[in-house]
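Tutorial sheet, problem 5. The two components below are modelled jointly, 381 residues in total.
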Amino acid sequence: MEGKKETISNYVCEILKNYSVERRNLLPVLREVQEKLGYLPVRAMEKVAEALGIPTVDVYGAATFFNLFRLSPPGKHQIKVCMGTACFMAGGQIALDSFERRLDVRTGETTPDGEFSLEEVACVGCCSLAPVVVVDDFVEGNVTPTRVDGILLSWDIGKKKQREQD
Amino acid sequence: MNRKVVIIIDGQKITAREGEKLLWVALENKVYIPHLCAVKEQERPTAGCRLCFVEIEGTCNPVTACTQPVKAGMTVKTRTPAVDRLVRTAFELLLSEHRLNCGECPKNGSCELQKIARERGLKLNLHRLKPLSKKVIIDDSPRSFAFDAGRCVLCGRCVWADHRIAGVGAIGFSRRGIHRRITTFADRELAQSPCTECGLCVEACPVGALYFKKN
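Model answer (C-alpha cells):
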C-alpha cells in the first residue's frame, strides 16, 4: 500500500511539473492525472491541492462536480446503464437499482474485488432496445431485473470456465 | 466609482456610491430585500438563492439586486407582481430542500428563512412541491458545533467564511444538481478536516444547518 501511495505521488509530481501554480490549472491537471491513473485517488487530489496552493476541498468539489472524473478505480468490467430519455422512460432506473443491489455498490463505485464498476451514461444511441446496458463493449437491450441477474450470472459462468481451462 | 448618485427605491430618494451593489444600498437604507447567498465583500456574487429580485424601470425583467450596480437616476421597485412571483417560487424551492422542524431547530426565532417569510407574507410550508426526502445526517464531530445537512439551503455563506475570512479551507461545495452539498474533503467528518473550530462558518449560517452545541 505504501509503495502504491509513493507511485501515485510520483506520477502526480511528474504531471505537475508542466503546470504553473495557478488555480486555473486545476482541471487540466486533474484530467491528466485521471488519464494516467484511471481515476482520482485521494492522495492525488491532496497532492494537486498542495501544489496549486488551494484547499483540498476545492479540488474535491471540482472532481465531484464533473461527470468526467471518477474517484474509484475502474473495474475490470465496466457496466454502463443508459439514462437517456428513452431508456429512462423504459425503466433504466430499475436496471440501475438492480445492479446496485446485486453488486452492492452505488453508481460510480467499483466492487471491492475490482471486478465491476457501475456507471450511468446518457444515450448510447440504440433507443429501440431501451432500457440499454453496455457491459464493456457489449450492448444488452431490454434489460429487466431478471436480465440483470442473467448478465451477471453469465460473467460468473464465463469466469469459472476460464478457470477450469487454466 | 465613488461618485455619489441619487436613486429611487420604492419612491424613497437614496444617495449611494455609483457602482455599489443595489442590495446593500437598499439594506443600508432600511429597505428590506430578501437575500441568503449574498456576501458584501464578494466581488462576483453567486446570485444563487434567487431571492433578491427587484424591478428596475427600463429593464423588461426583474433582476437580482445583489449583482446590480447602482447607476444615476435608477428607479427601483422591490415589490411588484413579477418580483413577488419569482421570490415566492424561489422561496418554496429552498424550503423543499430544508427539513422544516422549526420547533426543534436551534435557530428558531433568528432564522433567515423565518424572517423572509415574515417580511414577504410567505408561508413556511410547501404548497406546490414535495419535500426532497433527505436522510438526517448530522456531523457532530467538532467539539463546539454540529452540521445538519438536512437544514442546509446551500447559500454558501459558510464556505465564504471558511475560505476567505478564516482562511482555513475545511468545507466546500461538492457534487452537483440535486446531490450538491457542503462537505469536507473526501466527505470526512469535520473533526478529521483542517477545521480549526473558529466558529465563523457557524456564525455565517443563516439557517440552523451549522449550530453551536448547547453546553
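Marking note: Residues 3 and 159 of chain A are 30 Å apart (CA to CA). Full credit if you identified this.
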